[in-house]
Amino acid sequence: MAIVGSGPGCLDNEPGFVDSFDVVVRISNFKLTPETGGRCDVFYSFFGDSIRKSVADLRRAGVTLCMCKCPDAHAIQSRWHEERRRMKGVDFRYIYERRRDWWFCDTYVPDTATFLEKFDLLGGHVPTTGFAAVLDILDCDPAHVYLTGFDFFRSGIHNVDERWTFRNADDPIAHDPERELQWLRGQALRLPITFDKRLNWIMQHGDIPPPVSIDAFMARAVEIGGEGIFRRSALKVADGAQHIEHILRGGRRHIVEIGTFRGVSTAFFARFAPRVTTIDLRHGQVERMYPNHNRRAFWSGMGANNIDMHLVRNEQQKVDLIAGLDFDFAFVDGDHRMPQVKHDFDAVKRCGTVLFHDFDPEHPNGVTEFVKTLPTNEVEVMGIFALWRGRYGR
Ligand SMILES: C[S@@+](CC[C@H](N)C(=O)[O-])C[C@H]1O[C@@H](n2cnc3c(N)ncnc32)[C@H](O)[C@@H]1O
Predict the structure, then answer these.
(1) Which protein residue's CA is at the shortest distance from atom 16 of ligand 1?
(2) Could you tell me if 103 and 232 lie in one domain?
(3) Any idea what DSSP says for residue 372?
């Protein structure tokens, strides 16, 4: 069977591949394209207000079985929902009242106990419709399931090509895609299940964004941040991205960056380590130059969900923060005056490998001045970067 979720990964299939499965299950507002396929045998949905498929749409696609995520019941007791009069999140009877005359083929509706098993499996979080579909289909004991169009919302896209935003962050039973992914990771080896390219990557590499060429990275950054996005970024000048890619090609565990600015180099570092910590000042250059720039939105658009950002009040806070981190690569690109460069270097040098930006003997600055104090056999100059590999490493 193939289960086609609503993430953009379903667009990466070869035409004809999804339709070659014995049974094709599609979810909610699915879209039929040459890549996602043209057939739908089983339609799985929560059947709430946002579901736009009509009976005619589903008949045309070949649906002969509908499967509902929610029971026809007030399934979850939640004071949060009662106080806010958001009963649709816990009492699903409205769905069945509204659709009383809608059903047109055999339809599976779970009982409350079956639904709550999924809820409990996720530690008291309502499963996303896609994940509920996976669990319900696996319960049917299939010989093999191919999952496509699942990225646990890392792409920030649903309905194949529409923006998805996480709402109700304070809802205690809200969807928790991370838990769903953790469950799948833990169970994958004992399940008869295979994944599409993007999901395979996520299963193996977690939050590291999937590999794209430098050109594709640059084009995407401009698409999200506008033409000027590379201004003052280490990636812009003198093949910056190529040098960083060369240095980090083997991957790292945890990269620490000092000097986030608009987060462009941060997004690039995020491709090479499961974790990136980036540090800037609470009222740094971005606040002064681009007060409307939203770094987190930029990273999310770049598919980089593995970044922790800290905006520090002062140098001591920065030093204390770094002292508590376990990392194996540092990028120093903050205050370029000599004493500050030395100060940042001293804070990060125990990781053993430090990359400096703006090393420029032709136009000497604090970075150049400081790097020249390091033993020359420990420093490699690459364009405008200086890479220090030293004896402080563990
Ligand atoms: C050249 S920009 C960084 C560019 C970014 N690394 C890139 O390549 O896209 C320098 C950044 O360092 C920050 N900065 C300045 N002094 C700092 C300090 N003492 N500690 C941390 N960051 C600092 C500035 O606010 C500014 O955002």
Answers:
(1) 335
(2) no
(3) T
Which residue puts its alpha carbon closest to atom 25 of ligand 1? Answer: 284
Instruction: Please classify residue 156 by burial: count the beta carbons closer than 10 Å to its beta carbon, then call 0-12 exposed, 13-18 middle and 19+ buried.
Output: middle
CA of 260 from ligand 1 middle (Å) equals 5
Residues 232 and 333 sit within 8 Å (Cβ to Cβ): no
Whole-angstrom distance, CA of residue 385 vs CA of residue 368: 10
- Name residues contacting ligand 1 (CB within 6 A): 232-235, 258-261, 264-265, 279-281, 284-286, 318, 333-335, 340
Q: CATH number of the domain that 33 lies in?
A: 3.90.1480.20
Q: How confident is the model at residue 234 (pLDDT cuts 50, 70, 90)?
A: very high
Which residues form the domain of 53? 2-205
In a domain, 385, yes or no: yes
Query: Is residue 390's pLDDT more than 60?
Result: yes
pTM comes to: 0.69
User: 3-class SS at 43?
Assistant: strand
Domain count, the chain: 2
Residue whose tokens read 């193939």 = 2
Whether residue 126 contacts residue 175, with contact meaning beta carbons closer than 8 Å, is answered with yes
pLDDT range class, residue 394, cuts 50, 70, 90: very low
| Residue whose CA lies nearest to ligand 1 atom number 26 | 261
DSSP string over 238-279: TTHHHHHHHHHTT--SEEEEE--TTSHHHHHHTTS-SEEEEE
